[in-house]
Give the backbone structure.
Amino acid sequence: MVITALMWAAVAAVALYVAWPLLQARAGREVGDADAVPPLERQKREALAAIKEAEFDRAMGKLSDEDFDALNARYRAQALAAINALAAARPSGAAARQSYCPQCGAKRVTAANFCGGCGHDLRQRAA
């Protein structure tokens, strides 16, 4: 009798564990998304992901160079616009501490002379 009760309790616990993500999704929350990503940050992430996907598609032969150049220019413009808007929204002290590469939009290490993402010379911007 005790073993049966323990077995049913274990089955109920497993069922609740399995059903929990479904219950959260039905309640309107995304699973694992406790705090929502701001729209500009999401725009930046999506544009950078689209650039990587376009680079992969070109490497796989799915995109011609002309199509890649058009997509790359469009997504870079979107990413840089979002990055600039995020930088403008920060307090002046935070914006001074962290900047971005004007070529690819990657985060810049404070003392770096070259971008870690694309190798762009960052010393030109300081002049």
Summary: The radius of gyration is 23 Å.
